[in-house]
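quick one, three chains, predict together pls
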Amino acid sequence: MSADDPLVRVDGLEKYFWENDSVLDRLLGDDPVPVRAVDGVSFDIRPGETLGLVGESGCGKSTTGETVLRLQEPTDGDVAFDGSSVYDLEGKSLTEFRRNAQVVFQDPFSSLDPRMTIGGIVTQPLEIHDWPWTDADVESRAELRTDGISADIVSVTVDDDVDKLVSPVDGVATVHVTVRSSDVAGDVDPDERGIAEAEGAVAEVAEDLSIDVERGDGIEVHVSVGRSTKQLRLDRARDLLERVGLSVDQLDRYPHEFSGGQRQRIGIARALALEPEFMVLDEPTSALDVSVQAQVLNLLNDLQTEFDLTYLLISHDLSVIRHVCDRVAVMYLGEIVEIGPVDELFEDPKHPYTRALLDSVPRASTDERDRERETLSGDVPSPRDPPSGCRFRTRCPKVIPPADLEIDQETFRELMTLRERVESRDISLETVGDEDEFDLEGGTVVAADADAFARALKGRLLETELPPRHDEIVEDALASVAVGDWEEATERLREEYESVCERQNPALEADDHPVACHLYDEEAGRREAPAPER
Amino acid sequence: MISDRIKSNLRQEFKTSLLPKVGLVILIAIVFMALFAPVLATHNPNTTGHFDDGNAYPPIGVSYDSYEVVDGEREPYTVEFSSDHYLGTNNVGQDVFSRLLYGARTSLLVGVLGTGLAVLMGVPFGLVSGYYGGRVDDAMMRVADVMLAFPSLVLALALIGVFGSMSIPVPDPIVTAGFAEGMPAATTLPGTVTLVVGLVTWVWFARVARGEAMAIRNEEYVKAARSLGASNATILLKHVLPNSLTPVIVLATIQVAAIILLESSLSYLGFSGTTLSWGYEIQQGQDYLRTAWWVSTVPGIGIVLSVISINLLGDWLRDSLDPNIEGEGGGA
Amino acid sequence: MTEDILRVNGLSTRFFTEQGQVNAVSDLDLRIERGEVVGIVGESGSGKSVTARSVIDLIESPGEITEGEIWFNEPDLADAVADDYPEAVDGSFVNLLEVPKQVRRSLRGSSFSMIFQDPESSFNPSLTVGEQIAEAVEVQQRASANPRSTRAKTQEYSLGRLMLSTVLPSKKYVSEASRERAIELLELVGIPDPVERADEYPHEYSGGMLQRAMIAQALAGEPDILVADEPTTALDVTIQAQVLDLLDDLQDETGMTILLITHNLGVVARMCNRVGVMYAGEIVERGTLEDVFDDHVHPYTEGLLGSIPDLESAGGRLEPIPGNVPSLLDHEMPDRCYFADRCPKAMEDCLSHPPEYEGRGTDEHEVRCVLATQEYSEARALSADYFGKDDRTAVDKHADPDGFEDDVQPERAESTVEGSGGERR
């Protein structure tokens, strides 16, 4: 595998959750409803980089992270880790994947088992993967140095399993032993591990191992691991805790004795225990105060450099994304709308959603009040019933109207909303007009009143004045609504006002900085003029 | 396994309210009575005919009027209490006090063993059902629902019909060691009843454990364990089980009381494997309620006191443990 | 035009918990002018929420306002209570802590109202949104028909009436007029189709909509001061922007005064005229927005601003404040600057508790830090391990006596965070 190949390749990943899917629902004949949490997402993560996945709550970013790690089975699509599909892994290769890919969660309170000690939590991955590992094929060898003693009288034996602690090079684990005469060595602390004394000789091993020395005819030195597996694991846990900035004497304490930031560090230590290549960071700082967030971000940054980690950082916080990531993918309603290098995406956002997202973040500076910003109206639609075509079109400030439509964006936006309500029959007729102005029979207005009713309804639904031609069209359609013919109204409006944005879901082009928006779709651009800017 | 926080909460609740103390004192007394029944008892509880005049003798300080028919004539006389029998005797002349002590044995034994059985069956069932969810859960919970659909007494009677009556003699160490001469050498454990009360109540444990497992399986530490490659069995044993125990413990205390009641009902109906039972005793005495009221009342008080005391302790456990499930998560 | 509407002097709020006395707010001064937006910013456990609740009289046992004065400018109220409580009145100002509880309670809704972080738990899920807002309107109308009487508010809406209204719809507490007003309010806060939406239940609203509805409810009594406690923390950025715009517009239209509590410096910059930065129960720096953001003196303000990753430009290492938020337990608060143990510029002078000094910005600028009066000098600096590693061994549970600030979990255990000394500049 060359250096340019991605470490993680996500291809058309889909994850649906099903509602109304119990036995009872089946019996009652309810059809399962898919909730399209992730709906066809593709991206690559290159070794050593940090890819940011940003979006608002419910956009599917966390589900993507969990599915990539195979904590959820996908509905469709594939994830390749190091070239092989994550969902095909079994047995040994799955174990290896579990070792190489780790996760840090958002909630520092639920991510640690309240009934386990910190030591138990950090050694858990070691237990599951049966660390320390020893390989019978690895040879053990000692490199001996002597000082004040002839090397000829020293014999060194090394246990076979020292590769638990000494990483082998070319199938050989080498330990470095020094034997000195007591005169040279001076006073030694006999309790210290890795150093031993016997009648005028002091033996020392450079690695984190135990050493014994005996004086018979010559000097016999024995190097061993010298600790139980349990002890080794606790020692490793101590190292890890120290690395993430916690004091090492806290192994016996329980999570509730720690603050949020400290717990998050414990979670990071647990993820680091098996020296993974890849880490999914799922909102790792969202629950923390800003000053503590900064500490944790710095820590993650340092660890990435130190251990050559590849990160997938999931966050809703754009400033965190900007600070930490190399590349960013923006998600909206289960789809990626834009991916690009972090600077490009933040300085020159292409997708209207990305722009709006960036515009919405309040800056901590005194100019903030006067900053020009374009914010979005409306709410994110439900992933149970996503809009047709481009999913952002219901909130997009730049929907593309049909060619040669002489109304401005704002009015077109209103018409879109009106159409949507007609289509979903979400207009209540009872409350139109003054009290008792219109008679409603069986929920519809009598035909004679239909036109007046339509005018009253239009007045309520639209704020802006329409050009005469469009005024007529709308009143026409609303008159159909008044007499209960919703289909006719729907049809009439669609004929006139259907936008490319609702017909076609824009594709994410293969590109350095791909964006899924019809505004950048050349073909569409030629066919239909882009909307005038607001 | 129980954190310091919980311990301090338990202490706090215990200090501030009186009821758990009352409950604890009563329960300790009952347990003491049951454990040392052979030593405390004044008579062998099975020995009949302490008085062969056919009268039930009243408790100390009580007397009642009776009559004798001599030559077709009623001859009234008064039955005085005997200081030998603290709580009198029953109609067949057995010592009520001794039978009360031995009855406590049966009740507690069935209560604890029955609950233990229910926990052993219900908790694994519920944990598996809740943890796996989906179709597994659907299927398993339908089984549980069927169990719940029967009134427990009816279900118990049906099961007794299936299993028949089974009495297991359990040798009494105190008697065997020679500390209490003349007492029964073995206590009879009503095996069928124990089995049946376990079978009737396990569903409650299954439901509670399932609810806990469903919540815990979505906790991030479970996801973290899964991402580390832990097997489902490991996750169930190391994470789900320990974290779901608190409500199970609370339920278990309350179920002990419920089972004592159920056992009493069963033996009242005559389905116990032993005659040394409070429920049986009440049934025996009910024909004499107007005259020899103590025969039924004494074991009745035993039932009431033990059930109340256990429930008081259960409430205390619930109050002090429950908020802590969240408190522990909430930290602050 | 600028007239003070609220003056808080020397306010201290304490919580008496099992672990000891928690000094949630200590000796706090605050001045709010009519029609301005004042922000209080701080991390979790800094006492910002307790401050807001103290002002609006929502402190409950085991909490207690132990000291201080809250002067509220309201001539009508001053007239009304002047005879009975002359010592509580000063011109048109009334000291709310000197008048009986009922009087204070009667101000809720009409003079003060509050919006919270979590709109979902602020609505009753079994009543329609419109009904709940109409109820708030009704309460206020009955109260204003009979000013200063709490009976009008509380007694008529008793359990008996509630049950009666369930049985007999005609006996509903809420009048038709209130219902219409509720719809107007929903329209005012930008809820589309308020007529239909009023009849929907809270679960049919999205988070942003519900937050708008809560604002509508808070506006029912046309309050003089709106206290907004983390109003956008639970919302997504695009929705947050909408809600902030809304608050902005409402403030322009009605001229109401807003006290905004938040941990988000961006929100403060977006909304506020004046800001107070809270740390360990005190306002450590206050002033105009420019004073605090551009001319700050206190190293805590500096650290807070330095902790935020910049959205406009990439990279660079963040400069976090080392250590954790301090314990507020009385016996663990030594008599010194509370920030000294985390401060990169701690000096010997910081070992006594600093008063408020004039800052170097506008007249409004005040700072609780000796750096306002003298330059930092290396010679007088405290050594990096002066406070030692074990100085703060307070554990989580001391914090936040009644969960007021459980939004973001407090940082409050040993200071074992990375390089506790190394981060100092």
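Chain B touches chain A through 27 residues (CB under 8 Å).
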